[in-house]
Write a structure and sequence with these properties.
The structure holds two protein chains of two kinds. Chain A has 28 helices and 26 strands. Chain A is α/β, with parallel strands linked by helices. Classes of the chains: A alpha/beta, B mainly alpha. At the A-B interface, α2 of A face α2 and α3 of B.
Chain lengths: 705, 130
């Protein structure tokens, strides 16, 4: 019953002819129609307001308000634009028919009515009308859907190069539709020329290959809200030829932002914003592949914070998070430190810091030249992490442990490598706070030896195990001592005298070289002061300056204060520097040198001839002396090249008014040659090896007498 | 009869039964709506036609073209509805004349309408009986 009623269509008939109303009502009522009858236009319009007929049959000729006026009135009512209105008129009344259509009639039916065909005619009209309204709804829904999805569609016909767009395309591209005249060029004009080229090529390729395409573009907007737009195209193929391309243009900015966010959440630790275990593993996998391809090595440090759980438990997880964040920041800052990057052992390394989870971090060094690179980094990390972590209320000191793994060797793939690195880390924990362990134990032994030497060297300064030896500088012609070079020795309680070649590199690696250099300056000056009190003839004390010492910002002040404290005239001090120290940062070096020169301290260039001598700078530098390296002196008089070089250096020095000292003089022949060439000053075993202070004083007194 | 037609004031040709009445429409009504519909339609025709002829006569007396035109139109529709071809044609001509102002307000017109009306009723009742 309900269904039947649902399937019946409601028709409104407006006709002043009661016979017509009777026949329409009766005949249509027998079919699947319900009929409302109105005897005039006003009655019909009232019925329309309360009922919702699906179709109106409207007589043209009626008294008072005729069919035309009624038609106009209905069309002006809201929501009635698409209501099918069929005019009833005489077939020969051409004027009425034309006027009806002009006023928006849907169709007309001629009187006398052909009763058998009427129901069919009406059903057809209802179907057409419902198809039209469905189409209108569907179009509206599509427009809304396109707006919601920020997706427009386009259609391009190959043969005539015509392109059509939906309205949303203009919204997505943020352009005025007025500029669009139906050609591809209109679309291209909204893109950058590179993007337009890419799209043009993609369309041409699509036509040739018959394959769909998609392209992404960045749209640059003036208000800096740049958008990402995705263009897709799908070929329509007829008879094996692409006749059209149908496509979409979609604003995927939001999707991309969410994808980025998803990527960030799945590959990064949100707290520290460092790569997480997953990304570390992927990076490591790529790095290992690189090592295999280029036959290089890499190293990873696995760092854990000791007893971090206790911080969370006692101070709360928010303090714990704060500390983890600071730890991560400090770690990143340290490994990105420019000094570090300049380190020769690691200068080619790419460094990645990750948080593997909880209290565990990693530093990936790839590639490395030397396993020492990992140790150096480790030590720097120990150093920066030994400083306290200041939270709002607490000052916290952390102990850390580091496991070091090296590829190849410590694992065949990223999984075994990580397992081994973490194993080394836990073994380091067994050794106590602030220790590190290689996964490979033999590397531990080497590292252990160096670390132990370093610790002992640190103590050596405190325990006065360092001593200075002095090698005389003599005037070969006058046979008198004019000064000496102070040379540091380590009197080790177990190993005896350790040569500088063994401990100076360790001192340089660990930074202890600064303490040692300062100690040398102080001790040598003090010694000079003592000798003056012993009434030795006036001598010049030469000491070696290390690169790090020279670059300390207060180096000149320190020299000055040392001299002042000991009441030592600056002309009694000579600082020996290697060329490499001066040339590394020539402008800065020049400032320091000028300050020293202003103090009256003399500068000597050590090992001259072995570095990349820059004669141009030599002239600019306020120096007073060159020391010819022992390698040029050694084979005199048998090596003609060395003799030529020595002669050349002497000529150069003479033209620049520099003094010259020949190092490593061991034979009389060398003396004879040097004197002949005008070089009067030398040091070497021929006269004396480096000796302790007391022996040196005795040597001065007896030499030449 | 003095009715202006397009063919001028010629005497009309003799009217045959077929030219006067087309039974197909009423047959269709029988066929589609049964006796009741046909009977109701005819009843309405009888009443409406008589009313409209009276109204038309009044219009002629008052020389009111609008009344004449409206009554003629309704009479035309009523006749056409049942297949009364000649009555419809007469009514149409009057309507047309009243509209374009060529109508001579001659009451003889009413007589001919009444005659034709009776003739039509006679034909219709013969049809009903068959």
């Amino acid at each position: 019953m309900n269904e039947q009623r649902l399937s019946r269509s409601l028709i409104l008939t407006i006709d002043d002819d009661d016979m017509m109303r009777l026949m329409l009502h009766d005949i249509l009522g027998r079919e699947d129609f319900d009929v409302l009858s109105a005897a005039n236009a006003h009655e019909g319009i009232e019925m329309l307001k309360t009922r919702s007929p699906e179709l109106v049959l409207l007589d043209v000729r009626m008294p008072e308000m005729d069919g035309f006026d009624c038609l106009k009135a209905i069309r002006a009512m809201p929501g009635m634009a698409l209501l099918p209105i069929v005019m009833l008129t005489c077939a020969d009344d051409i004027d009425s028919i034309n006027r009806s259509f002009q006023l928006g009639a849907t169709d007309f039916i001629a009187k006398p009515i052909s009763w058998p065909t009427l129901p069919h005619r009406l059903r057809y009209l209802l179907r057409a009308s419902s198809a039209l309204s469905w189409l209108a709804k569907s179009e509206a829904a599509l427009r809304t859907a396109q707006k919601i999805a920020h997706l427009g569609n386009w259609d391009w016909t190959v043969a005539d190069d015509r392109m059509q767009w939906s309205d949303e395309v203009f919204n997505v591209l943020d352009v005025n539709p007025d500029g669009f005249r139906g050609q591809r060029l209109d679309l291209y004009k909204t893109l950058t020329s590179a993007d337009a080229d890419a799209l043009h090529r993609a369309i041409e390729r699509c036509v040739n290959s018959k394959k769909r395409f998609h392209l992404q573009f960045q749209l640059y907007r003036n208000d800096s809200s740049d958008r990402v737009v995705l263009i897709r195209g799908e070929p329509i193929i007829v008879d094996n030829t692409v006749t059209r391309i149908q496509g979409t243009i979609q604003d995927i900015t939001e999707r991309r932002r969410i994808e980025e966010q998803i990527r960030f959440l799945s590959y990064y630790d949100p707290l520290t914003r460092l790569p997480n275990r997953k990304l570390f593993k992927e990076s490591l996998s790529q790095a290992i592949a690189g090592c295999k391809r280029y036959d290089t090595e890499l190293s990873a440090l696995f760092i854990s914070i000791d007893r971090f759980k206790r911080i969370n438990e006692t101070l709360g997880p928010s303090v714990g998070d704060q500390i983890l964040k600071m730890f991560a920041d400090r770690l990143v800052t340290e490994v990105q430190n420019s000094d570090y990057a300049a380190d020769s052992a690691c200068d080619k390394s790419e460094i990645t810091v990750s948080r593997l989870g909880g209290n565990e971090f990693t530093v990936l060094l790839n590639p490395i030249n030397d396993t020492r690179c990992g140790v150096k980094t480790t030590k720097r990390i120990f150093q920066v992490m030994s400083e306290s972590f200041k939270t709002d209320e607490h000052d916290i000191f952390l102990g850390i442990n580091i496991g070091i793994a090296v590829y190849p060797g410590d694992g065949v793939d990223e999984d075994s490598f990580i397992k081994n690195g973490e194993f080394a880390m836990s073994r380091s924990r067994e050794q106590g706070q602030n220790t590190y362990q290689f996964f490979n134990k033999s590397l531990n032994a080497v590292a252990y030896h160096k670390l132990s030497m370093e610790n002992q060297l640190r103590r050596a300064i405190e325990r006065d195990e360092l001593i200075l030896y002095y090698q005389p500088k003599v005037n070969m012609r006058e046979m008198r001592v004019i000064g000496c070079e102070a040379l540091v020795r380590w009197q080790h309680p177990e190993f005896g005298l350790v040569p500088p070649t063994q401990f100076i590199p360790i001192a340089e690696d660990s930074g202890l070289i600064i303490d040692i250099s300062n100690w040398v300056l102080e001790t040598a000056c003090t010694q000079m002061h003592l000798w003056h009190q012993q009434v030795l003839p006036p001598l010049v004390m030469a000491i070696n300056v290390s690169a790090r010492q020279f670059r300390q910002h207060d180096f000149v002040a320190q020299v000055n204060s040392t001299l002042a404290r000991l009441e030592l005239a600056p002309l009694h001090l000579k600082l020996e520097l290697t060329e490499s120290i001066l040339l590394e940062n020539i402008e800065e070096a020049l400032v320091t040198l000028r300050e020293l020169d202003a103090l009256g301290v003399h500068i000597s260039i050590d090992d001259f001839g072995t570095g990349y001598s820059s004669l141009a700078y030599l002239k600019k530098l306020p120096i007073s002396e060159l020391k010819i390296d022992r390698s040029f002196i050694r084979d005199i008089p048998n090596n003609e090249d060395d003799m030529a070089i020595t002669t050349a250096i002497l000529a150069l020095a003479k033209s620049l008014s520099l003094e010259v000292v020949a190092e490593g003089v061991e034979h009389e022949e060398q003396v004879a040659f040097l004197l002949r060439q005008g070089c009067e000053t030398a040091q070497g075993f021929l006269y004396s090896k480096p000796v302790p202070a007391a022996e040196f004083a005795a040597f001065v007194e007896q030499f030449g007498t | 009869m003095k009715i202006n037609t397009q063919s001028g004031n010629l005497s009309p040709p003799p009217i045959t039964g077929a030219a006067r009445f087309n039974p197909a429409l009423l047959n269709l009504l029988y066929h589609m709506g049964g006796d009741a519909l046909a009977a109701n339609v005819l009843e309405l025709f009888r009443r409406n036609a008589a009313q409209q002829i009276d109204k038309l006569q009044e219009g002629l007396l008052e020389q009111n073209s609008d009344t004449v035109s409206q009554a003629a139109h309704s009479l035309k529709s009523a006749a056409a509805n049942i297949g009364g071809l000649y009555l419809a044609e007469l009514a149409r001509d009057i309507e047309q004349a009243a509209r374009d102002g060529s109508l001579a307000f001659d009451e003889q017109v009413v007589d001919s309408l009444k005659t034709e009306y009776q003739q039509l009723l006679h034909l219709v009742s013969k049809q009903e009986l068959s």
